[in-house]
Amino acid sequence: MMKRTRRREERRRAPADSPPGRLRIVASKRKRPGSAEQRSPRAHLRVPARAVENAPRPTIPVPAYEWLSTEDRMFLQFERPNSPMHVGAMLLFERGPLHTTGDGIDVRRIREHIGAQLWAIPRYRQRLHPSPIDGQPVWVDDAHFQLAAHVRTVRLPAPGDSQALQHVANQILSRPLDRRRPLWEMWLVDGLADGGFAVISKIHHCMVDGIAGADLLAVLLAPAPVDSPARAPCWVARPAPPAAQLLRDRALRQAQTVRSIGRGLWQVVRHPSRGAEWAERAAALWQAIGLGARPAPDSPFNRPIGPNRRFVWLATDLSAVKQVKNQLGGTVNDVVLATMAGALRRFLQHRDPDGALPDLRALIPVSTRTAAEARAMGNHVAAWLMALPVSERDPLRLFARIHAMTAALKGANAALGAELLSAASSTMLNIGMRLVERFRPFNLVVTNVPGPPLPLYLLGARLQRVHPLVPLFPNQGLGVAVLSYSDTLCWGLNADCHVVPDLDVLADALDAAFTELAVAACVDADRPRGLQRIAL
Question: Which domains does the chain have, with CATH numbers?
Answer without folding.
Answer: 66-220 (3.30.559.10), 273-533 (3.30.559.30)
